[in-house]
Write a structure and sequence with these properties.
The protein is α/β, with parallel strands linked by helices and 472 residues long. Helix content is 48%, strand content 18%. It has a five-stranded mixed β-barrel with strand order 1-2-3-5-4. Strands 7-6-8-9-10 form a five-stranded parallel sheet, with helices on both faces. The N terminus and C terminus are likely disordered.
């Protein structure tokens, strides 16, 4: 900020009541004069380190602290709304940039810097960004223990992703050779700090995972917070979380914790500790194998003994069961062997043959008697039916005789037998009147015996027939 005339000195000279006379001022007047002069100072930006932080106040929510540098310090106040809007959590040691103005508190005459806005500076800002990223990734579940992949207790092949120019890779190799020379090591070089380092590490993780090791060591030596910011990169953290092979981190020293440490499957305090975690000492491996061999031998002997006892018991029960089953089957066979059908199979057929012949003889003897009895019964029934029929028909025979005589008397054939005839026209209609035909018309005449055809040559009308006679 360009500096010109000192506003504080100018304000004091302009408002000093003693400039024209030597009358003393009251404390209130003196503080008011100072406040007026301080209020004339314009808004400014101040950078410094937070010290003696107190807040937010339980009742007001305001924050009170000092801002200092190497040679001076001043009181600062951040009102509740300003602090909430800033979105940071201040603590001692943070580097901040405050925008505001000076003010004098009338009650005590204390000079304070009233911050209208604040933001972190330098490492403090970086830590705020890292904390925000950590909260976001945790909310997504990338740090859940349930998602962390299991790491074999004895890794026989591991990949190491680190810088090839530092001492870290040699420390890791030396640790693995010392603890377990059987472990195979695949080294994939990458940049561990500086611009573009996260992308080289992501590529190194892809190459290491393609080789299918049992675990990947992502390690680097110590450094400042800014040097370790590479391992707080969001894209690198997501690559570590999604790597198909378990990732073990050993970044910096014990107090250093990066985002990659949080999302990895195992976090170690140093690169050496990361190497030790995947390569137990060979002596420990031998001891564990020997102990497990002894335990396995004892377990096998116990299982074999229990199985032998179980087999003996099963064999005894099976033997008794088989003896009982064989005894039952033998008794059944003996009973079957004593059956007559098995001793003399043809005897059953012979018995059936004799019985069949006897039944045939009885049937032949019984048939004449049955037929005679049936014949007598049939004759008796026929006689009874004949007598009953004659009795039922006799009343109707007389009536039928009378009706037959009447029909015979009325029959045209009876009339014909007395010399009369029946004439019909060519349509077959019986002629009862001479007017029913014309001269030249053919007629047929029915006689007692036979018939004849005739042609009408003349028509004559005649008187009515004599009563009691049939017309001709």
């Amino acid at each position: 900020m360009a500096r010109g005339r000192n506003p504080l000195a100018a304000g004091a000279a302009d408002s000093n009541p003693n400039s024209n006379h030597d009358a003393p001022l009251s404390v209130s007047a003196a503080i008011g004069a100072a406040k007026a002069s301080v209020n004339a100072i314009p808004t400014m930006l101040v950078a410094g380190e937070v010290s003696g932080f107190r807040g937010p106040n339980a009742r007001s929510g305001h924050c009170y602290f000092q801002v200092k540098d190497d040679s001076a310090s001043m009181d600062a106040i951040v009102w509740r709304n300003t602090y909430a809007h800033a979105g940071v959590q201040l603590r001692d040691g943070m580097s901040v940039v405050l925008k505001g103005h000076f003010d004098v508190y009338v009650g005590t005459g204390r000079l304070s810097f009233i911050a209208q806005s604040l933001q972190l500076a330098g490492e403090g800002l970086l830590r705020q960004q890292v904390a925000e990223l950590a909260r976001r990734l945790k909310a997504e579940g990338l740090m859940d223990d349930a998602l962390k992949r299991p790491i074999p207790r004895f890794c026989m092949r591991v990949a190491v992703c680190t810088s090839l120019s530092g001492s870290v890779i040699e420390d890791v190799k030396r640790t693995l050779r010392r603890r377990n020379p059987l472990v195979e090591i695949d080294v994939v070089g990458c940049a561990v700090q500086g611009p573009g380092a996260p992308q080289t590490i992501i590529r190194a993780l892809e190459i290491a995972a393609a080789a299918r090791p049992e675990a990947i060591l992502l390690v680097r030596g110590g450094g400042s917070f800014e040097d370790l910011m590479t391992f707080n990169d969001e894209s690198l953290a997501r690559a570590v979380a999604s790597c198909p092979v378990p990732v073990i981190t050993g970044i910096g020293h014990e107090p250093d914790t990066s985002i990659c440490d949080m999302v990895s499957d195992r976090r170690s305090s140093t690169p050496t500790a990361a190497a030790e975690s995947v390569a137990p000492a060979i002596d420990d491996v031998v001891n564990v194998i020997e102990m497990r061999r002894q335990r396995m031998g004892a377990a096998l002997l116990k299982v074999a003994g229990e199985n032998n006892m179980r087999l003996d018991g099963l064999a005894g029960r099976a033997s008794k069961s088989m003896e009982g089953r064989i005894s039952n089957e033998r008794a059944l066979l003996d009973a079957l062997a004593r059956r007559r059908c098995l001793e003399n199979p043809m005897g059953f057929v012979e018995e059936r043959t004799v019985a069949l012949m006897q039944a045939e003889q009885r049937l032949m003897d019984a048939m004449p008697r049955v037929l005679d009895a049936s014949q007598r019964e049939t004759d008796g029934l026929a006689h009874r039916m004949r007598m009953a029929g004659e009795g039922m028909l006799q009343p109707h025979e007389a009536a039928m005789g009378r009706m037959a005589a009447a029909l015979d008397a009325l029959s045209p054939l009876k009339v014909l037998s007395r010399g009369y005839a029946i004439a019909r026209d060519d349509q077959g209609h019986v002629l009862s009147d001479a007017a029913q035909v014309d001269v030249g018309q053919n007629v047929s005449v029915l006689l007692k015996d036979g018939s004849l055809s005739a042609q009408v040559t003349a028509i004559e009308t005649s008187p009515a027939p004599i009563k009691g006679e049939y017309p001709s």
